[in-house]
Every structure is written in structure tokens, then in C-alpha cells.
Amino acid sequence: MKLSWKTFLLWSLPILVVSFFLWQGFLAPTTSELNTNIASSRMTYGRFLEYLDMGWVKRVDMYDNNHTAIIEAVGPELGNRVQKIRVELPASAPELVTKLRKANIDLDAHPTRNTSALWNLLGNLLFPLFLIGGLALLFRRSNGGAGGPGQAMSFGKSKALFQMEAKTGVIFDDVAGINEAKEEFEEVVTFLKQPECFTAVGAKIPKGVLLVGPPGTGKTLLAKAIAGEANVPFFSISGSEFVEMFVGVGASRVRDLFKKAKENAPCIVFIDEIDAVGRQRGTGIGGGNDEREQTLNQLLTEMDGFEGNTGIIVIAATNRADILDSALLRPGRFDRQVSVEVPDFKGRLAILQVHARNKKIDSFVSLDTIARRTPGFSGADLANLLNEAAILTARRRKLSITLNEIDSSIDRVVAGMEGTPLVDSKSKRLIAYHEIGHAVVGTLLQDHDPVQKVTLIPRGQARGLTWFTPSEDPSLISRSQILCKIMGALGGRAAEEVVFGDAEVTTGASNDLQQVTSMARQMVTRFGMSNIGPLSLESEESNPFLGRGMANTSDYSDEIAIKIDQQIQYIVRECHQKAVNIIRENRVVIDRLVDLLIEKETIDGGEFRQIINEYTPVPNKQFSVN
């Protein structure tokens, strides 16, 4: 029977503490007959001498090395009854014993029984004995008890979670928004269930499948679904569990993992966050890591070494495929790389339908509308969105989730918690003009994203927000779209300049200016959208092992650098001037919108465009939100 740590500490600590105090001699008892010989009263030494002279003292018992006496006296003051009285004797009274003998008083001296030496000896023995016993118990525990394999011997054993019949509670029907990846793995499941369908035509089962994609897109969820569908043994482990402080432990765990997998083939081995162990060898500041590199070498050998692993499929997930070792990515180890990207509109709708199964959503809420309003959301973001809406519904004591809770949850996920509304003051009016400036410029530009809503309710660090609905595919953006985005971002600053003057311009546009500068620089140095020509002067690729920005070096001359700065200034200056012109031409409608925004604090996109359309035609855009 093994003793748990809690039980060991519960029993050993009090014993060790008690034995320590015994060792110090604090608990050594002092037994004396003085404690059993109880006196009825006390008397001073002078009064005792008077009783002695009057012949009232009949007996004297001396204790505590003649420092204390218990006398038996009889006298009129004592009611002519024998009483025991305690007397504290002085340190030096040599004549007292002589005087007692002359008076023929019955005298008895009781020496003190000193047992402290015995207890000191026991204390000195007990503490080392308990210490040795505790060490013996720990040593026995480290060896796993009598005859059992110990933890020291199992230090290099794999920590993989093993399930003979993986009941993860997740199947392919529970995974939505990544149909292409599901098709790949449905084929892997068929390999495991009916291998003869493929071996009949000479096909071999893939040895490894690597899931690559941003965080929250469903890579781990997909692996759980594979385990739930295949009904084969499933080994699940994280890449960080291989690597230890001691060199060679990770490699030993890899060997042990694949040994168990061979004994249970066909099976699936899932390694989550494989970048923790599969990083490129010999890289990084100060060189590589011996333990990680040995672990990776062993993993490479097990996946495609001298001995084949028939029936073992390794599935790994990572969002840092750029740092993985090239030997790990080659066919024969990871034959397939499956990209799990952020879902499109149909994918988001399917994900929302999955997560809405166990939630009470009002019949007026359309999941189609939510999917259109959440471009760029991953599966984890959408799950969190509905969960936040459900929490907000319970907080407001409603019976079902309405569109108001959905709107508030989207705002919270994107921008942060809702702050305290601003008071009606000059600051509130200035922020209103700033946000209306963004919205008006973005609305009146043909290639800008449509306005979803404008609000003065603070969220996160922002005092006010203008929400735009981005396009479905942000990977392909034209030059005119980038210029419109720059003008829209400068709309707030332009409104401050036109309405309040240059002297009253605030720092509220600092984040806007950072975005503007970044977009203009990318146009010049990466996209070839300037007078310098179609040149890519700066690369997005950098060495991930040198840290962000440390490996960015200029591949152009100082003359080109001056031209880059001039082109960036020219683009920003031109866009700023156009934004100022739009603000000046629409000052009347801007003032009306500001008054309405201060009154309502939030204006949705439909109402906003309707008001502007009364003064100037709004360009016909493909609005994703009604």
C-alpha cells in the first residue's frame, strides 16, 4: 500500500515537531513530591520563626533543595487544629536546621528527583530516529513500494493519455466550418476502419497529418472528433510533456509512446502544440537545446526510421508551422498538411448552429445575421460570443437571448468591456465629431467598408467607436480600397481640425495615425503601389528565433529610403486633404448627426445612411448588414 504525500505529511509533521521539542528538553517533566503535598495556606519566614519560638511547629518537610518547606503547626490562631502551611525559605539560613534540632522538631528533607537527563537522552534519540524513518519512507515511496517499479524508474515513461475506445463526446457532426479538413480526416478514419479498400489498389496509409492554422480554429476539436469516429486506441499528449530539464528524458518518452502505440496498432497518436518539441535544430540565440533536439531526433526516427510503424497515424497540431524543422515536414513523416483557417460566412453559420443547440435563442434572432456581422471570427470566438450573450441574458434576467445581447457580446469580444457613459460636456461633443467624421468619410467613399454603427459608449481604452463591416475576403485588397481606408481613418482628425481648429486638435487620433502610417508604408515597400515602382523592398518574413524586429534589415540604399519616406508623406497628405474636403462639404449633416449621437449615444448603420442620403447621395455599396 502506497502512502500519499498528504497522509505522510499529516502524520509525520506533528511527530517531528513533538520530537524536536523533546530533543530541546522543553517537555521534560519535573516530578516532585512537593506537588502532591498540598498546603492549606502560606506563611512568611519571619512568622514561621515566631511559631517556632512559641512551640507551635510540630513537623517540617523540606523540598526543592531546602528552598521550600511544608510545616505542620497547631495553635490558638489555627483553631487548635493541625494545619499544613507552605513557607518559602531564604537561600542562606544555616542556623534554621540547628534551631529545629534543638527544639526536637520532626524534620524530613526530600531531595528532588531529576529525570531531565533521561528525557534529554530520549529526545536526542527520537528526533534522529523519526528523521531516518521519514527518509526511509520517502525512499520506499520513490521506489514504488515493495517490489514495484518506482517513479525514478518511470521518469522517462510517456505521459500520454491513453484511451482504448476514445469516448471524447465529439464526432464529425460537432465540427463545423472546416469542411475541407473534415474531408481529409474522414478519409483517414476510413483508412483505419477499412484499410483493404486502399491496399487493394496499392495505397498506403499516411503516417502523419499536420494541422496548421491560427488559434481557435478547431484543430484540437477535430482531433477529438477523429478519435470519436475511428473507435481505435487514441493517444493524446502535448508537445511540452516530452521536454524535461534532464537530457535524454524526452527521447525516452518518445520511445515509450511509440512502443505502446505499436502494441495497440492500428491507433492514433495526437500531439498537440508540436512546435514545443519540433522546432528547427541548431537555431536561436546561443544555439540549440540539447534535450529538445534529442527528443526531435527520436521523434523523426520513430516516424520514419529503419522500422516502419504500420497502423500508427500521427496527428499533430500547431499554429507556428514556420518554426518547425524541415525534416519533420517532409513526406514520409507528415505526408499531409491540412490548413485549418478562419471560417467564411457559411462556416460561421454552421459553427453558430452547432453552438446554439443548447442555448435558448429568441425566434427573432437570425443566426444568418450574426454570421454576416462577424467576419474574421474563429470557431472559438463564435463559441465565446454565444456564451457571453447567454451570461448577459441571465444577468438581465431574461428567458432567451435577444439581438440586444448578441450586439453587446460582439462589442465586448471585439473592443472590451463597456465603460461608464460620458457626461454631456465639451469632451463628449469633441468625441462625437471625431467618430462622426470617421463614419461620414467612410460612408461617402465608394470603396470603403459600410458603417455598422457609431457609438459614444466607451469600450476598453476607446472613448467612442465607429464600427465598419469588413469585406468577406480581406486577403485581396485593391489600391483604391487601401486609400479609402486611410481616408476613413483620417476622418476623425479631419473633423477635429475643421470644427474646432488646429489649436484644439487632441491626441484621440494617435491610434488612427499609427494605422495610417502602417498602411501607407506597406503600399510603398511591399505592394508596389507608389511612384517608386513595383518593388518589394521589405519582406514580411523574419527569423522567428531572433525576436520580433531584430532580424529586419534594410535591403535598399539610403536614396531609396528617402524616396520611401517621401512617398509615404505624399500618400498620407493627399488622403488627409480629401478627408478634410469631405468634412467641409458635409458640415450641415455632420452637425445634425452629432446632435443625434449625443442624444441617443448610438446610431446604427441603416439610420446613419438614411440621414446622410437626405443631404447627399450615398454610393451604392454591397452592404453585408441591413
UniProtKB/TrEMBL annotation:
Subcellular location: Cell membrane; Membrane
Active site (catalytic residues): E435
InterPro entries reported for this sequence: AAA+_ATPase, AAA_lid_3, ATPase_AAA_core, ATPase_AAA_CS, FtsH, P-loop_NTPase, Pept_M41_FtsH_extracell, Peptidase_M41
SMART domains: AAA
Binding site for ATP: G213, P214, P215, G216, T217, G218, K219, T220
EC top class named in words: hydrolase
UniProt keyword list: ATP-binding, Cell cycle, Cell division, Cell membrane, Hydrolase, Membrane, Metal-binding, Metalloprotease, Nucleotide-binding, Plastid, Protease, Thylakoid, Transmembrane, Transmembrane helix, Zinc
Co-factor requirement: Zn(2+)
EC identifiers of the protein: 3.4.24.-
Biological process terms in GO annotation: cell division; proteolysis; PSII associated light-harvesting complex II catabolic process
Record field: transmembrane: 117-139
Cofactor note text: Binds 1 zinc ion per subunit.
AAA+ ATPase domain location: 205-344
Residues binding Zn(2+), per UniProt: H434, H438, D512
GO MF, one annotated term: ATP binding
Role of this protein: Acts as a processive, ATP-dependent zinc metallopeptidase for both cytoplasmic and membrane proteins. Plays a role in the quality control of integral membrane proteins.
NCBIfam families: FtsH_fam (TIGR01241)
Xref: PANTHER family: ATP-DEPENDENT ZINC METALLOPROTEASE FTSH 2, CHLOROPLASTIC, METALLOPROTEASE M41 FTSH
Assembly: Homohexamer.
Family to which the UniProt record says this protein belongs: In the N-terminal section; belongs to the AAA ATPase family. In the central section; belongs to the AAA ATPase family.
Protein known as: ATP-dependent zinc metalloprotease FtsH
Name of the gene encoding the protein in the UniProt record: ftsH
